[in-house]
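[User]
Um, tokens okay?
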Amino acid sequence: MTDAGLHIPSSAVLAASEGSFLIKPGVGLMIWTLVVFFLTFLLLKRFAFPAISKALDTRQKAIEDSIDTAERTRAEAEKLLAEYRERLKAARSQADEIVQRARQAAEAHESESREQGQELIAEAQRRAEREISAATERALSDLRREVADLTVTATEKVTRKALSEADQRRLVDEALAELDFSTISAGSSS
């Protein structure tokens, strides 16, 4: 059979006229297919499925164990991190406390040093004033002695006679009364 220049092989035309085996299956073939399917299913259920199920269970257990281990590890890591943060916080507070104590100690030492310096300056000033006062007293005493000696010597030269002890004392007292030693001592202390 040809149709407008198409050539179809005769075997195809024969198969088409008898019907396709896919469209009209045979009952016997269908029964054997179902029997083989059920036998295969029973064999798989008896031997393969338990092994597959066991492998899947083992894998599931391994995955669950891995997840549990990971969760425990994460929890321990979080605990360690929290502990580390607490220690770091404590170390920082200790460091701040040490710095504060050092600052207070430095300020106290500075204040103490300043007070000691002021005390040393005041003591040196008092000692200098005492030394000046003592030196002034010695100088005034020496000056009085010199004035007394000069007065006695001058009187003896003027009178050309030796004076008695009472006369010497009276002349010295009069000469000393005439001299104003308070202005001398006030001028030396300033």
About this structure: The two ends are 156 Å apart (CA to CA). The first helix runs from residue 10 to 18. The beta strands are 2-3, 6-7. Residues 23-189 form one domain.
